[in-house]
Amino acid sequence: MTQTVTNERVTRGRGVERLVNGQPTTDGAGVKINRVLTQPLQRRLDPFLMLDAFGSDKPGDYIAGFPEHPHRGFETITYMLTGSMRHKDSAGNEGLITDGGVQWMTAGRGVAHSEMPEQTDGLMEGFQLWLNLPSTNKMMEPWYRDIPAGEIPRFSTESGAQVQVIAGATHGVAGAVQRDGTEPLYLDVTLPANASFDLRLPPGHNAFVYPYRGHLVVDEGCVPEARMAILANDPEADGVRIVAPKESRFIVVAGRPLNEPIAQYGPFVMNTQAEIIQAMDDYRAGRFAA
Fold this sequence. Notes:
- The chain is mainly beta.
- The protein has 1 helix and 27 strands.
- The strands form 6 sheets. It has an 8-stranded mixed beta sheet, with no helix packed on it.
- The radius of gyration is 18 Å and the shape is globular.
């Protein structure tokens, strides 16, 4: 059941620092994706490392999927808007995410997994977000959870916003997953035409907004569809004000920066190059979760 809450009031909203175009690319066994948060933005959007948006009704764009590959040192959050994807990993976890579901995997000290479509036609659309782990948690045991759409907390506001809380907490509603170190907030919001949504954010947290249906006005700045708006880190601002000139749907992501060194080599994200070399050696030697 969706509860109705009073919309938060933001007294000073964050503006749009800049708009980012995604980079069309392929990953896995040739899956076509739009890489929105790229490696050069990792420091600016710490603790987030990557955001991929994918969406196609052409099976050739996604059918090959993501065969087994390793990860170490961070978390992957796959949000499936439409379609079905099967997860299997070397720690023995297996699950199927379908329309509206989320797969949250903590790679920790190392895990190999595959993500393969369980459909041969139709639309497949969603996001994958990479969330960094604090240095103290990078070698933790791997963890995995499937979250069906019906288990994602949701609420509506008096102004008409329909909100799903994947992670974090807002408007008095706790999300499906909480993380103490990075304090991620991950929302999927639908706004009817001319409706507004105020969202309070801690001043020190990095944040961005990504509309994937329609377009938005964020503190008087226009954000077109499929463009990421990085929100300015204004120490005087207490949140963000969002208005939808037409019916729109968007994600909002925010988190507490770790302010730690980032060393990345493909699917391994650690703090030093020595740790990256160790991750590669451990993977080759079969020392990841099994």
